[in-house]
Amino acid sequence: MQLLRRGDSGPGVVEIRSTLRRFGLLTATPADTPEDLFGADVEQAVRAFQQQRGLITDGLVGPATYRALREAGWQLGDRMLALMISAPMSGDDVVALQERLLELGYDPGRAGGVFDEQTEAALRKFQREYGLVPDGLCGPATLRSLRQLGRKVTGGRPHLLREQELLRQAGPRLRGKRIVVDPGHGGPNRGVVVAGVAEADIVWDLARRLVGRMAATGMDAMLSRQEDTCPTDPERAALANSAGADVVLSLHTDANRSMHAHGLATFHFGNGSGATSTVGEALAGFIQRELLIRTGLQDCHSQARTWELLRLTRMPAVRVEIGYLTHLGDRRKLLDPAFRDVVAEGILVAVKRLYLLGQDDQPTGTFTFSDVLARELERGGAQAI
Ligand SMILES: [Zn+2]
Questions:
Q1: Torsion region of 218: left, alpha or beta (phi above 0 gives left; psi -120 to 50 gives alpha)
Q2: H-state helical runs in the chain
Q3: Superfamily assignment of 92-155 in CATH?
Q4: pLDDT single digits (tens) 297-314
Q5: Domain residue limits, the chain
Q6: What is the C-alpha to C-alpha distance for residues 356 and 350, in angstroms, rounded to an integer?
Q7: CATH architecture, domain defined by 11-72
């Protein structure tokens, strides 16, 4: 689709207006404004919508915002839901179905709003156990049963509890934890390129430093791409899902039109309607704090987003934007191999903290790679190197 912004007009704008009105974000079109004009009122409503849904709040309707507008329009019962391999169904109705299944004690994975194999398996299990035809389709009969039943899982939001329970069961040892390290871009896609420095190369180098350290502590770390390839985000998510990864770490550097923008940000899955990854949020927080204290980068905070990689992965996933290549100071830091070692060490320690669950804690910024290695040797986890 074509990008729509303030000042544009056409039938696309009429559709956007009507959708935003349905969500209560836009009132009637002012008398002096044509219905098909993307005016200041539409821009403001788009920003509010983007804020609610964990999107970048730029007031523009590009592919991600357009997709979110469409998805937000679906309510459970509006259409039959089923697994479509080639073009999976997604929308707020799928979120509602997933949350309902979680409440009833089934496991459709994270309520990310995509009807995938795991959602289908959970739905079939529900249908079998409640005497319905186990066809994996969410039609009128299944809906009726879903609505009539009370909640079985109590004491909090079930999808949050499930993630935390998996983390607790995983135990504090790093050995055997499967980590997918995802260097952004790759191959012909260089990412941000400034003064001959390419994001794809920086994050590739950083990813290799991180994977090397993780392997030394006995973790089963793997890269999501080769040096000369650039899988799409859904492909990267599918790789992590089929590998049964415990955690996904996606590495990027940022850019801005302003050469003054700089700093560090981390992103985890979450949207405005309450679906979130608590463990992802915790890990993003650990990474943010460890890296801030070790690197002196500016704090651009930990934030919730609905980006494809965060939403389509079934395990906690964090995207780290390490500095701005468009900022001279950040770029200089990123070009220094010693700095990249510091970043790799900080991320490793943050992952360690996640699995320690608050035990064995040292102040942020003081744990070193050798400490982590020594602890793992004590626990019989690491290979002596
Ligand atoms: Zn990037």
A1: left
A2: 11-22, 40-52, 63-72, 92-103, 117-129, 140-148, 158-170, 199-216, 233-243, 278-295, 308-312, 328-335, 337-356, 369-378
A3: PGBD-like superfamily/PGBD (1.10.101.10)
A4: 999 999 988 888 998 898
A5: 11-72, 92-155, 174-384
A6: 10
A7: Orthogonal Bundle (1.10)
CA of 203 to the centre of ligand 1 (A): 9
What distance in angstroms lies between residue 198's CA and the mean position of ligand 1's atoms? 10
> Could you tell me the distance, in angstroms and rounded to a whole number, from the CA of residue 230 to the centre of ligand 1?
12
Give the largest CA-CA distance in the chain: 75
Per the CB < 8 A criterion, the answer to whether 277 and 157 are in contact is: no
Confirm whether pTM is higher than 0.90.
no
CATH topology of domain 174-384: Aminopeptidase (3.40.630)
Do 92-155 and 174-384 have matching folds?
no
* Phi-psi group of 156: left, alpha or beta (phi > 0 → left; psi -120 to 50 → alpha; rest → beta): left
What is the rounded CA–CA span in Å between residue 205 and residue 223?
Answer: 11
> For 14-44, what is each residue's pLDDT tens digit?
989 988 998 889 988 888 888 899 999 999 9
Chain Cα centroid distance, residue 330: 24
- Please state, in angstroms and rounded to a whole number, the distance separating the CA atoms of residues 286 and 319: 13
Ligand 1 center–CA 75 separation, angstroms: 33
Strand ranges of the sheet holding 247-254, from the earlier edge strand across to the other edge: 220-223, 178-183, 247-254, 317-324, 264-269, 299-305
d(CA 320, ligand 1 centre) in Å: 9
